[in-house]
From TrEMBL:
GO terms for molecular function: S-formylglutathione hydrolase activity. PANTHER family: S-FORMYLGLUTATHIONE HYDROLASE. Its EC number is 3.1.2.12. It catalyses: S-formylglutathione + H2O = formate + glutathione + H(+). The keyword Hydrolase applies. This is S-formylglutathione hydrolase. It comes from Bradyrhizobium xenonodulans. Transmembrane segments: none annotated. The lineage of its organism: Bacteria, Pseudomonadati, Pseudomonadota, Alphaproteobacteria, Hyphomicrobiales. SUPFAM superfamilies: alpha/beta-Hydrolases.
Amino acid sequence: MTIQTVSTNTSYGGVQGVYRHASQATGTDMVFSVYVPPHAQGAKLPVVWYLSGLTCTHANVTEKGEFRKACAELGLIFVAPDTSPRGPDVPGDANNAYDFGLGAGFYVDATQEPFARNYRMWSYVTDELPKLVAENFPVDAKRQSVMGHSMGGHGALTVALRNPHRYLAASAFAPIVAPSLVPWGIKALTGYLGPNKDAWRSHDTVALIEDGAKYSGFLVDVGEADNFLKEQLKPELLEAACAKASIPLTLRRQAGYDHSYYFISTFMGDHLHWHAERLKG
Ligand SMILES: N[C@@H](CCC(=O)N[C@@H](CS)C(=O)NCC(=O)O)C(=O)O
């Protein structure tokens, strides 16, 4: 599997790169970013996966996430995939809405037409891209963790709950915790997986926990001034599910913060320290 370098820039003594490759999973070219911190030659480093939210590419967090200083200090590789397949032949939302189709893959493998061929973001982020990154960067595959924002917070929590031994830590900014119950999620899961709600449960954090999935603990930040908090995010449902299942949850309600990268970048350092603590060799 080969990758093409789009750009590299030195930052905090490491290298911030952007790369392109032909994805088998999505049948399209995909672009992703990787930050490799300064490290001793031959060293293998832990890797943090960051899954982005609606409308994002790799670029939003790469440019606005302010993760590099902490990653350089903590010795963490940081990988940011795109949020959907893209290209002239990839079907999107019929009305060009921002919350379905391009930029809104929801980290599932679609089963419904016309999306099933390209919208395979679950396979992409849990299988194809990890293999590609391990082949091309100094990754210690035994030390991986995952975080994300909003739709990507949903992705991070579901990926962790379904692969608890591979991802040693999981955290989220403003995650969609119960997509089966909120407008963004209902639209996406119906469109990609069809109307049978049984098929949605393995892509719903609260449902996965209700169905018995276990995890060592989550760090979740939400902003109290986030316009999506009450209708789409509903952190109280995660709080209740974790309490019932005895899954440790650190849920922080941050006064004054909204849904934006001003919020994410403020608490990015806290999250990376949380991950580094759990990724120690
Ligand atoms: N206000 C946005 C809603 C989508 C949104 O807030 N997206 C979040 C993730 S759910 C985001 O990170 N947007 C890109 C950015 O802030 O850079 C829109 O209508 O495009």
